[in-house]
Amino acid sequence: MPIATVDPTTGETLRTFDELDAEGVEKRLAAAAEAFRAHRATPFAERARLLRRAADLLDADQDEIARTMTTEMGKPLKAARAEAAKCAKAMRWYADNAERLLADEHPDDADVKDSGAVRAAVRYRPLGTVLAVMPWNFPLWQVVRFAAPALMAGNTGLLKHASNVPQTALYLEELFRRAGFPEGCFQTLLVGSRAVDAILRDPRVAAATLTGSEPAGRAVAATAGDEIKKTVLELGGSDPYVVMPSADVERAADTAVTARVQNNGQSCIAAKRFIVHTDVYDAFTERFTATMAALTVGDPMDEATDVGPLATEQGRADLEELVDDAVRAGAQVRCGGRRPEGQGRGWYYEPTVLTGVTPAMRIHREEAFGPVAVVYRAADLDEALALANDTPFGLSSNLWTRDRDEVERFAAGIEAGGVFVNGMTASHPALPFGGVKRSGYGRELAGHGIKEFCNATTVWEAD
């Protein structure tokens, strides 16, 4: 795939970039290793000062970088602005909290007395240079939620971003440089996916984090395993959204629309499978379908647009295949199910609601990465849980109920990295984020995320 900015509203290539050659990659690897030796020794207060400066610069650049993101991958401009603001918030959160999160831990004397120690501690130290392989769907946020904790922990970062968001990738390198981070602390590598294996095998790279597809995660995990290097993987999701009779059905249906079409439906944590108790199924489905059908599809630069184009032509083709396969097998299209008229050459797809989906259909098990929702009927919570868990993915989940017992049963029985009750899934700097099963392993954000790329060092002392 060429490294290029391609406008998803027209299919026009706006700008292309040369891929780094071997010499260019070597220079950046050497610079990252050199920067780590100095950066790991800087005090938290200095790292925090630099990260707060980056947040201030990002706030000032919000409109400009939002337009860049929208141009490169098609998210509505208002959503791109919100993404930039969220990134600045996360930077400040880690600047404020990293020292506390990584403070030395001191076990109780009684717990370690029989080890022969008079005192013991656990200290968190950075690992080194972390390679980040990141996707295009949240081109700023996915990177910042790795970079902010990694830099605050004393690591350095190398970013291999998706090939269709090169301008956003280069902006991030320049942002950290403008903030005052030393040369080599954070660098962008304009390389294709084939270059990742060799970079990850380089001894100067200590670990890797990847957000993206299952095949990409398997490839990075295989190489890292061969090299015995730490990885964190956040892969696909097919999140369930369960609605029970005690829920506020209107609010659940309205929130469901946002949960499904956020980022034009191209989000791992977007709700994709809506599992509704039979007592409220008709009311929920009617309101949900009507609201989905009423969404405005169009130019993502227009403030009135709700859903822009998909980021790539192949992404739309993949989505169409899933919907067409379901329809051929008997699924009912409640709304959408086709390319909208009057959108020219852009990669648009109508917000779509399907019912009557069965396990024989691909969309029952495969992730629909676009504005397509599947609504299921469930007789009770046990059936809803069984449907919710009937997927190879386990990223997050949603439950709508006023019944406390149902909340506890769902939280205990769901196979997912998160449970959001009476609201939609969202990531937040103070809450750990990640999945189970084929959604990956490890955690980002919060204290869990910053410790992923630290060495928990035991310090044992005797007289």
From TrEMBL:
Belongs to the aldehyde dehydrogenase family. This is NADP-dependent succinic semialdehyde dehydrogenase. Keywords: NADP, Oxidoreductase. SUPFAM superfamilies: ALDH-like. NCBIfam families: PRK09406.1 (NF006915). The lineage of its organism: Bacteria, Bacillati, Actinomycetota, Actinomycetes, Kitasatosporales. InterPro entries: Ald_DH/histidinol_DH (IPR016161), Ald_DH_C (IPR016163), Ald_DH_CS_CYS (IPR016160), Ald_DH_N (IPR016162), Aldehyde_DH_dom (IPR015590), ALDH_GabD1-like (IPR044148), GABD/Sad-like (IPR047110). It comes from Streptomyces solincola. Residues 3-459 form the Aldehyde dehydrogenase domain. PROSITE patterns: ALDEHYDE_DEHYDR_CYS. GO terms for molecular function: aldehyde dehydrogenase [NAD(P)+] activity; succinate-semialdehyde dehydrogenase (NAD+) activity.
